[in-house]
Amino acid sequence: MNIKGHTIKDGCVEGEALVLTMPFSFLGDFDLTTGRINDLHDQAGASISGKILVFPSGRGSTTGALIGFYACLFKTGPLGMIVREAEPVIAITAVMNNIPMMDRLDIDPLAVIRTGDWVRLDASNRVVAVEKKMALREAG
């Protein structure tokens, strides 16, 4: 399945999706040293490291962009981000830290992407390709 959208930060990455149903902030929603989501979030204990992070929107402090920088430096941050609607802090986090990011997809990403799906985020060409986890199991 290919979904068109709006590019916040260009780039092309692919990997396993981690879907959050709650807004996300780099400040306070995960452990910077491990990449694991904290206990107050719907995916508590899951790691964002090396994942395509899919979530409704960002929230929180401008300090989140700096925490995002350290997450990239420590290799505990996401490969890419897909959001319903980017707010300024999460958008600047992506731009500042060279994390490919898209928002305003033609189809709600939270309705079609599930944790474990394989996602190719090609923000340079404004397209997200999704391979469903079940289809991957059948092919393997």
Automatic annotation (TrEMBL):
It holds the Pfam family AcnX_swivel_put. InterPro entries: PMDh-S-like (IPR012016), PMDh-S-like_dom (IPR002840). Residues 24-102 form the Phosphomevalonate dehydratase small subunit-like domain. Gene3D superfamilies: Phosphohistidine domain. Keywords: Lyase. The keyword Membrane does not apply. The keyword Ligase does not apply. GO terms for molecular function: lyase activity. This is Predicted aconitase subunit 2. It comes from Desulfoluna spongiiphila. The lineage of its organism: Bacteria, Pseudomonadati, Thermodesulfobacteriota, Desulfobacteria, Desulfobacterales.
